Amino acid sequence: MNTVSLLFHDVYATDPRESGFASDAADRYKLSATELDAQLRGLATVRGDQHPFLITVDDGGVSYYTMLADRLEALGWRGHCFVSTDVIGSRGFLDAGQIRELDARGHVIGSHSASHPSRFSACSVDRMRQEWAQSRQVLEDLLGHEVIAASVPGGYYSKTVAHTALDAGLRTLFTSEPVTATHDEQGCSVLGRFTIRRGDAPDAARRLVLPACSARWVAWARWNAKGLVKPVLGSTYVRAADVVHGWSTQRNAPCAASTQAHHD
Ligand SMILES: [Zn+2]
After folding, report:
1. N or C: which end of the chain has fewer CB atoms below 10 A?
2. What residues sit around ligand 1, an ion, with C-beta below 5 angstroms?
3. Contact at 8 Å (CB) between 112 and 153?
């Protein structure tokens, strides 16, 4: 039974710029409170013991504290909160006290790099190592305990991204590739995620975690159809092409695939 990891970003009451990074690109991922409530209502109908899922949230926007945490806890849930540490305490982002409190309330705090490079997989190896090591150190100093989870900024994943995360002591790495399979990259567990975006159907999250995985197929096809699969990822490209052009490779369905690539 595979766990489905969902990826959310910021949530807002009236203006997307209330929380997180302020750009048109970032805004496309932000949900209004009404949209979030609809997604959570759908998820609440799913039996988590039969269809396990994780809620992960990227960027460290303040809305994790102001909008999301209470809603998750009201359902008896906790989320994974991935923080870009350079912006801790900046306008629209979590501050140190809020991060500490979320950790104490049972949410998993992880790294989302230090500076959120726009194309993480294009960074030098040294820069990647520094981004991971620095952000992990900041979080560990802040929380007073070990931090081992991280998510890749922008979803730009490569094996080197995982290797450098591992070098920095991180052992669980979430990408943005819409797959449920986990794969081990020399000791670092790499997990895909399914993104919930502004304008998605109100029951998108529910359909993504249910076992009839047609919604996950659509997410997989949509993601690969963007043409963003790197030539260097030969096997991934073949699989993506099969999926998009023929839906023929059931064995590589997003319910079971193990690949690497990146996304926007
Ligand atoms: Zn991000």
Report:
1. N
2. 58-59, 153
3. yes
- Give residue-wise pLDDT tens across range 46-56: 887 778 899 99
Q: What are the beta bridge partners of residue 4? A: 53
Q: What is the mean pLDDT of residues 51-62?
A: 95
Read off φ and ψ for residue 43, nearest 5 degrees. Answer: -65, -35
Question: Could you tell me the distance, in angstroms and rounded to a whole number, from the CA of residue 9 to the centre of ligand 1?
Answer: 8
Closest CA to 255 of 192, 163, 171: 192
Distance 154 CA to ligand 1 centre (A): 5
Q: What is the distance in A from the centroid of ligand 1 to the CA of 112?
A: 7
The owner of tokens 């209502």 is 41
Q: Distance, CA 254 to ligand 1 centroid (Å)?
A: 22
Q: What is the pTM of this model?
A: 0.83
pLDDT tens-digit map of 125-143: 999 999 999 999 999 999 9
For residue 227, give the DSSP letter.
S
Rounded distance from Cα 58 to ligand 1 centre (Å): 5
Tokens of 46: 């799913």
> In angstroms, rounded to a whole number, what is the distance separating the alpha carbons of residues 75 and 182?
26
Distance CA(18)–CA(72), nearest Å, equals 20
pLDDT digits (tens, 9 = 90+) for 9-42: 999 999 999 999 999 999 999 999 999 999 999 9
